[in-house]
Amino acid sequence: MRNHERDESILLSLKRLDYLSRSQLQKLHQLGGERNARRVMASLSEYLHSFRGDNGESIYYLTKAGRERVGADKVRAKLADANHYLMRSDAYLFFKASDWKNEMKFTIPGTVQVIPDAYFLLNMRRYFLEIDNLQSLSKNKEKLEKYRKLKASNLLQERLRYFPTLIWVTLTETRKKHLENWSEGLESKIYLWKEIK
Predict the structure, then answer these.
(1) Which residues are registered as beta bridge partners of 108?
(2) Least enclosed by CB within 10 Å: which of 84, 110, 156, 183?
(3) 60-107 confidence digits (pLDDT tens)
(4) What is the second-level CATH architecture of the domain 88-196?
C-alpha cells in the first residue's frame, strides 16, 4: 500500500512539473540512494519514459498510461535540451512553495499578455518565476517590458494589494548582471542555477 502512495505521488509530481531528473525525484520523494531510486523508477516503467540529460542522468516524463493514471492533459516528448524544465523543477524544490502553477496566463486585453514559467505562493506572498536558459537577452528585455506593463495596469495590485516579486533563474554572472540592470522598477530576485540546485 505504501508503495502505491509513493508511486502516485511520483506520477503526480511529473504531472505538475513535466520533467524531473532522477536526483530531483530522489530529493522530492526521499528515494534514498541512487541504486534504490533507479529500482523505484524501473518499477514505474509502464508509466514513464526517460532519456539521458546533458550530465548523463535520466530524465523522466509521463507515458500515455502515466497521464491516464493521474489525469494529466499535457503530452510531453523527449527533448534535446531539457534544462529549461530542470531549472524550473529545481526552483520548485528550492522554494518549497505552495500553490505552484506553471505557465499561467496574465492578460490585459489589447495591452499585454505575460506567461511566467511559474506563479506561486510563498510565505503569504505571490511570485513570478522566469527561467533564463540561454534565451536571447533581447527576449528577456521584452519579457521585462511586459511585466512593467502588467504592473502599470494595477490589475494585480487591486487584487493582491502589491505586485508579485519577479524571480529569475539564470546560468551565468553576466546574464545575472544584465537582468539586474534591466529589472529597474520591478521588485526582483535573480539566482544562478547552481545556487538553487
Answers:
(1) 112
(2) 110
(3) 999 999 999 999 999 999 988 899 999 999 999 999 988 999 999 999
(4) 3-Layer(aba) Sandwich (3.40)
